[in-house]
Write a structure and sequence with these properties.
By secondary structure, the protein is α/β, with parallel strands linked by helices. The chain contains 14 helices and 15 strands. The chain has two domains: about 10-45 and about 290-400, Aspartate Aminotransferase, domain 1 (Alpha-Beta Complex); about 70-290, Type I PLP-dependent aspartate aminotransferase-like (Major domain) (Aspartate Aminotransferase, domain 2). It has helices at about 10-15, 15-30, 50-60, 65-70, 80-90, 105-120, 135-140, 160-170, 190-200, 255-270, 275-285, 290-315, 340-350, 385-400, and strands at about 35, 100-105, 125, 145-150, 150, 155, 170-175, 205-210, 235-240, 250-255, 320-325, 330-335, 355, 355-360, 375-380. Helix 5 (about 80-90) crosses helix 11 (about 275-285) and helix 13 crosses helix 14.
């Protein structure tokens, strides 16, 4: 990073991840690019039609305008934390009260607060392999060392987690257990129990990042890792970006009251409180029954997109490719034959105004070219006809690359 300014050393530590995420967000906001690369909700399920019904009322002086526009509690609004417990936590086996919930400014803020609470420069955080690249940016900003653990179709392998905790004296184990990012895989119930036990046994934090959990199309609801925790070593991090609106910049953390108070103290030093206007609008979204109504519409729409993408992949992708079959969430993970470079595939697809995310950079302890045959595809933002058109085109280019053309 050439500059006359004396940047902190953390800027160099996070440089590669920052450059990757810069490109990702540029693609997401390019109006000329039809993207399978982002992680945004479909426009048709954003809550504008609901919010416009009550926004003027609740944001007025006679309504909840004072709560919305004035300074408020760092924990977040009481009734929103109660709604989280009732609508989002109880279905996953978590019996919690508002004292267990901290409303945060977007899902990633929990990771930032947790790093501020626990991480010293050089401390180790264990992750899945591959893992959510955006969060490794946050971890490296805290000057943590990120070490990946072995994974299979059931998610992170607890035995390898345990070995690496002992080997590296790790402080945190980070996992996206349900419809994970980037793979779409879900951690089995037995492994969820085992991770909670490992957290207790070694006194490490299990950081359970579960923003896709509620976006389920089929299959049984899986209990949260947090529901198996008996010692307070699990912290759950969730976002409202996938189930309400990214622009609300809201999320929530779930932990013991001791840890919630500690996270609150760090949040006071960071940005004092969650965004009040968004909190009020979201609380009313739950109170008026719109969450369940919109979720039904959302899951039906996304299932249609997922099915169209998988069917088109199976028809047009080269022989020998593998993909995940997620029961929910936003992503399908693809492994092409080794002869297919997804960096080159992405480049050629973008000439036709289609894009996706090549997967090599999502492996924390490998050079991108080592896994250059992998890719993440999002199916939530584009209509079915665009999904079919784009995946067919990408598949045909992939077949050419597989044949050495």
């Amino acid at each position: 990073m050439a500059s006359k300014f004396r940047y902190a050393s953390r800027m160099q530590t996070m440089h590669e991840e920052a450059m990757y995420m810069r490109g990702l967000f540029d693609n997401m906001t390019d109006p000329n690019m039809r993207s399978f690369g982002g992680g945004a909700p479909a426009r048709s399920v954003l809550p504008m039609n609901y919010v416009e019904k009550y926004a003027a009322e609740v944001l007025s002086d006679a309504g909840r305008g004072f709560e919305a526009f004035q300074y408020s509690a760092t924990f977040g609004l009481q009734d929103l934390r109660e709604a989280v417990c009732k609508h989002l936590l109880k279905p996953t086996g978590i019996e919690a009260g508002p004292e267990n919930v901290q409303i945060v400014s977007g899902g990633l803020e929990t990771m930032y607060l947790v790093c501020q609470l626990f991480i010293e420069p050089g401390d180790v955080i264990l992750t899945e392999n591959p893992t959510f690249m955006h969060v490794t940016d946050t971890f490296k900003m805290a000057q943590a060392e990120v070490i990946s653990c072995e994974c299979d179709d059931e998610g992170i392998i607890p035995e390898d987690v345990e070995r690496k905790i002992m080997q590296y004296d790790a402080k945190i184990v980070y996992t996206v257990p349900t419809f994970g990012n980037p793979t779409g895989r879900s951690l089995s119930v037995e492994r969820r129990k085992k991770l909670a036990e490992i957290g207790s046994k070694y006194n490490v934090i299990i950081l359970e990042d579960d923003p896709y959990r509620d976006v389920r199309y089929e299959g049984e609801v899986l209990p949260a890792i947090y529901s198996f925790d008996t010692t307070g070593n699990v912290i759950m991090a969730c976002s409202f970006s996938k189930i309400f609106a990214p622009g609300s910049r809201l999320g929530y953390a779930v932990a013991t009251p001791e840890l919630i108070y500690a996270l609150r103290d760090i949040k006071i030093a960071t940005n004092s409180q969650p965004p009040g206007v968004s909190e009020v609008l979201l609380a009313e979204f739950f109170h008026r029954g719109y969450y369940e109504e919109n979720m039904e519409k959302m899951t039906a729409l996304y299932k249609e997109g997922r099915d169209a993408m998988m069917e088109t992949m199976d028809k047009f992708f080269p022989e020998g490719f593998k993909r995940t079959t997620p029961d929910g969430g936003y992503y399908i993970w693809v492994e092409f034959p080794k002869s297919v470079s997804t960096a080159e595939l992405k480049k050629r697809a973008e000439e036709h105004k289609f894009t996706f995310l090549s997967g090599g950079a999502w492996y924390p302890n490998a050079m991108p070219e080592e896994n250059d045959n992998t890719a993440r595809f999002n199916f939530t933002t584009q209509p079915v006809e665009i999904i079919k058109e784009g995946i067919e085109l990408i598949g045909k280019i992939a077949c050419e690359l597989a044949e050495g053309k």
